[in-house]
Amino acid sequence: MKTNDVILQTTTKVVFFIIFLFSIHIFFAGHYTPGGGFVGGLLTTGAIVLLLLAFDLKTVQKALPFNFTIMTGIGLLLSLGTASGAIFFDVPFFTHAFDDFTLPLFGVTSLHTAMIFDAGVFLVVVGSAITIIQSIGGDS
Amino acid sequence: MEFVLLIFLPIVAALFIPILFKRIKGIHTGWFVLVIPVLLFIYYTTFIRTTMDGGHAISELQWIPSLGISFVSYIDGLSMLFSLLITGIGALVVLYSIFYLDKNKEKLGNFYVYLLLFMSAMLGVVQSDNVISLYLFWELTSISSFLLIGYWYTRDGSRFGALKSMMITVFGGLMMLGGFILLGIMGGTFSIRELIAESSTFVGHEFFTLALVLILLGAFTKSAQFPFYIWLPDAMEAPTPVSAYLHSATMVKAGLYLVARFTPIFAVSEVWIWLVTGIGLLTLFWGSLFAVKQTDLKAILAFSTVSQLGLIMSLLGAGAITMHTNEAIFSFAMFAAIFHLINHATFKGSLFMIAGIVDHETGTRDIRKLGGLMSIMPVSFTVAFIGSMSMAGLPPFNGFLSKEMFLQSMLAIRHFELFNFATWGVIFPVIAWIASVFTFIYSFYFVFKTFAGKRKEKPLPHEPHEAPVGMLISPVILATLVVGIFFIPNVVGKWLVKPAVMAIQPYQYSHPSEVAVHVSAWHGFASPELWMTVGIIIIGGLLYVSLSKWQKVYAIQPEYLSLNAFYDATMTFSEKGMNRLSRFYMTGLIRTYLLYIFAFLSVTTISVLFIQDAFVVDMDSFSKISVYGVINAIILLLAVAFVLFSKTRLGAIISLGAVGYSVALFFVIFKAPDLALTQLVIETVSVALFLLAFQHLPKLNDHGEKKSNKIVNGIIALGVGVTVTLVALSAHSQKLVASISQYYKDTVATEAGGGNIVNVILVDYRGFDTLFEIAVLSIAGIGVLGMIKLRLARKGDPDENK
């Protein structure tokens, strides 16, 4: 059965980027306004799921040629590494550091090691969720 | 130097063994291993000077200081003696194994790793002053023994024997841990020295006898005392060097060590003296009686070991009498115990090695097939003869000296006046004497049935010949010691035995020279021990000659009445019973398991809530109900009802999504943007996931559930709902501790450098939670991937035992 989903596919091509950019925004804004790595990751997952619904699994795999299982591993290592990095500075495990820096283009920006940790969370959420969805959806 | 680290030297060396075994094919791996025990032996001999003066050496390594647990190497006379035994016999056994195990056929890498692991563990047991680290090493000896017994793991017997020894010794070890903890509670410390110093306050404590019995269980299982000895004969499946080392010279003596070490604490107790002496004597008798029944060379030696361990155990018990009286006749026992422990290690070690040689050179250990090897294997015969005669208690071998002292100590028990010993004490020398007669018989049985007489007509699996020189070095050295110690018993006594006796009886002696025992071979015609020995030789000799006539008596005992049958039945029963129990409630349907989980959850929570009288509703703290809230609640209820009564799965999935979205709306109404956002996205993704997996889901099915099942389900569902509501109401209405939210508000900008408390909690305040959650999420993802992509179950039979 072949369904006609031109409308869905056309909108998806635009909406996917909007959701994805929004998820990046929400990830960076998380420390001060609602959002963060977890929600950001879920939003990206939602965007990819939309792609999956509009197109089929193979097309999406071609469009996003990432190994999501490895992405999960990288994310986990990133988070654990941030947490344990504190040990090398002779402070207890999981101590974060933050300060304000003046960067070109951005001006005065607050940089925080929690963001690296959160990036790990982001990657793990996207990686595991897509791994699960791909395995179940791609099973015949 | 911190010599506590030397305990770990063998384990560290073990790390390199597999590499050496793989890389260097030309040289037998055993030569590299041999260096370790030789070095340690030489190092530990330097402590003799200290311990001879009644001193001790101590070295400590902190492990968990907050719990008072550390690695302490405490070397006094007792632990020094054991350390020398472990490293000395260890070196001889490694040397022997180089010729016993073929470097091309055997997995030497595994063998020597296990052996070195054992060496470390055993050194740890005898040197630890901290009971918790002692326990750790104790279990490590059980594990390495398990691995060594199961070394030839393709044989059924090896696996069975390994499991049996593990079951029994680990059971004992756990009991012992309980005893240690009770001691720790009574004394407030885990250090054995401090416990001994405080031991007078333990008497009459409600835990005292319990701790005593538990620790004895540990010692008895390890030292193969009646009725736990049954693992030792099965442990003979191990390669012979292992039997010589673990199962006769060292590991099985760990129980004796434990009893000796704790004598100063427990000797005041009547239970201790009766149990240690009584069980020891029973084991001595039982072991010697059944040794004559065996037809396998190593089985004879195994039962003989059981019996000799019982002998030493009973001497340790008799030695504890000195806590109650200072009369000189009781002071022999402890000396005899330690002295016999050394002698036993020498003669039994050599006998095991000879049994291994016979097995190696003839291809069988069955004594019914052997005979007449004397002329073919003269050196082996000489060693076996020396060892057996020493075991039988004949001069001029060291076993004679300690055997006489044993009889002397047993005779002395009659004169002990406390604890009913004056009435019952006469039994002790009688049993000891009968057991000695049987010891005499099995010693002769072992050596002469193998080496004397005529060759059997049926040819042996291999054409027998004398063993290679390298294999004979170790047993010859041990046999030399057997003869040598007979002539210089008092030197051995001064250097090794007396410091050990002092360590066991600190309440009596403050210097080793105070132990007023002089060993002599000749006590004059008036001594009763002499006539007891003469009696043993005459009766034993007569019985040995007529052995073929009465050996059939053993067949009277039916197989199903033995302790082994009891062990087997227990194992079968627990395995089958557990299997049946699991099958009873494991239906394979997730819905059944959910029923268990939810029923348990709601019943326990609700009962605790009402037993503790914790159910409180404070209406004042509720927020106002808005119109939007009411509308949203109605939508929510409708959606839930639709999920329940939907006829198709698609309808149920969509209405479940509606439930989720309306919950998200509640978050919006109550101004929780983070939660609302997350909930919305989660709902979207999970509905999408359901739709993706839709084609794989089976049709809605009631799995043959009846109406009554549905009612039960309904009740449980209702129970869960009620539970959650009650808990939520009560938790909101009463606060045991002040809310932490104010702290978050105060510190979010200053301490955490953020503005959004929810996110800062996730990444900083409670970062550990998040870290573990993403770990769980990854595991779940990989698990799903594994289950779907690999599908192991489809390929073969899922039952690993078939």
From TrEMBL, chain A:
Keyword Cell membrane: yes
Chief location bin: membrane
Pfam families (alphabetical): MnhB (PF04039)
Keyword entries, A-Z: Cell membrane, Membrane, Transmembrane, Transmembrane helix
Ranges for domain Na+/H+ antiporter MnhB subunit-related protein: 7-130
GO cellular component entries: plasma membrane
Keyword Cell membrane: yes
Subcellular location field: Cell membrane
Its membrane topology: Multi-pass membrane protein
Residues annotated as transmembrane: 12-32, 38-55, 67-89, 109-133
NCBIfam families per UniProt: PRK12573.1 (NF009223)
PANTHER family: NA(+)/H(+) ANTIPORTER SUBUNIT B (PTHR33932), NA(+)_H(+) ANTIPORTER SUBUNIT B (PTHR33932:SF4)
Family, per entry: Belongs to the CPA3 antiporters (TC 2.A.63) subunit B family.
Protein name: Na(+)/H(+) antiporter subunit B
Organism name: Sporosarcina luteola
Automatic annotation (TrEMBL), chain B:
Pfam family, one: Proton_antipo_M
A GO-annotated cellular component: plasma membrane
Membrane topology: Multi-pass membrane protein
Domain NADH:quinone oxidoreductase/Mrp antiporter transmembrane intervals: 128-421
NADH-Ubiquinone oxidoreductase (complex I) chain 5 N-terminal domain location: 64-104
Keyword Transmembrane helix: yes
Family from the record: Belongs to the CPA3 antiporters (TC 2.A.63) subunit A family.
Name under which the protein is recorded: Na(+)/H(+) antiporter subunit A
Organism: Sporosarcina luteola
